[in-house]
Design goal:
The complex is a heterodimer of chains A (115) and B (111). With 115 residues, chain A is mostly beta strands. Chain A is built from no helices and eleven strands. In chain A, a hairpin with a 2-residue loop joins strand 7 (65-71) and strand 8 (74-79). In chain B, strand 6 and strand 7 form a beta hairpin. Classes of the chains: A mainly beta (115), B mainly beta (111). The A-B interface holds A 4, 31, 33, 42-43, 45, 48, 50, 55-56, 91, 93, 95, 97, 101-109 and B 32, 34, 36, 41-46, 49, 89, 93, 95-99, 101-104.
Chain lengths: 115, 111
């Protein structure tokens, strides 16, 4: 399996621009997570989908952030408008909750820099 | 109560030495304690995990020690190798999805 695939790997944009990050989870996994990683705050869960339905979005910072999962093989995280404080590495992860371990499989991340 | 406190922030160990990273939690409802390993430019990957019904779990050179009464758990890396140089995150969860991650420990193993 190719693992969790994220794009773009790097994004540099200017403040106020719209940013869209994309994720393809591992086939057969029915849970998808978006995390944000920064030096100051570490790994933070932004949103969790189960069977394409958002279950917990309590970690989404504010209305500028939105996430969708239109089907089992694709999810997007959108920031509009972007701000410099949004600069971080954004990870997508997937898992199959039926497995006892609940292991998260992370993608390689999308590094976002907002100037 | 939802925090997982991890220490040290960074660690330098000689090749062949033992690396020890500690984590402490408050929420006694947590029932799953994984450790993730992250190399630069990569996403975290599960290294080893433990549930509170056992006090120790060993996989190769990696061992988790779990102290339920003290609400602490630690990762021991025996015979540390330069290839182990990475950032290590402890985590805790109740149920299988809402992980609380520690702040990470950057390990450097000197050749």
């Amino acid at each position: 399996d190719a693992g969790v695939i994220q794009s773009p790997r790097h994004e540099v944009t200017e403040m106020g621009q719209e940013v869209t990050l994309r994720c393809k989870p591992i086939s057969g996994h029915n849970s998808l997570f978006w995390y944000r990683q920064t030096m100051m705050r570490g790994l933070e869960l932004l949103i969790y989908f189960n069977n394409n339905v958002p279950i917990d979005d309590s970690g989404m910072p504010e209305d500028r952030f939105s996430a969708k999962m239109p089907n089992a093989s694709f999810s997007t995280l959108k920031i509009q408008p972007s701000e410099p404080r949004d600069s971080a590495v954004y990870f997508c992860a997937s898992s199959f909750p039926g497995v006892r371990t609940g292991e998260l499989f992370f993608g390689e991340g999308s590094r976002l820099t907002v100037l | 109560q939802q925090q997982v406190k991890q220490s040290p922030q960074s660690l330098i160990v000689q090749k062949g030495g033992i690396s020890i990273i500690n984590c402490a939690y408050e929420n006694t409802a947590f029932d799953y304690f994984p450790w993730y390993q992250q190399f630069p430019g990569k996403g975290p990957a599960l290294l080893i995990a433990i549930r509170p019904d056992v006090s120790e779990k060993k996989e190769g050179r990696f061992t988790i020690s779990f102290n339920k009464s003290a609400k602490q758990f630690s990762l021991h890396i025996m015979d540390s190798q330069p290839g182990d140089s990475a950032t290590y995150f402890c985590a805790a969860s109740k149920g299988t999805y809402k992980y609380i991650f520690g702040t990470g420990t950057r390990l450097k193993v000197l050749a």
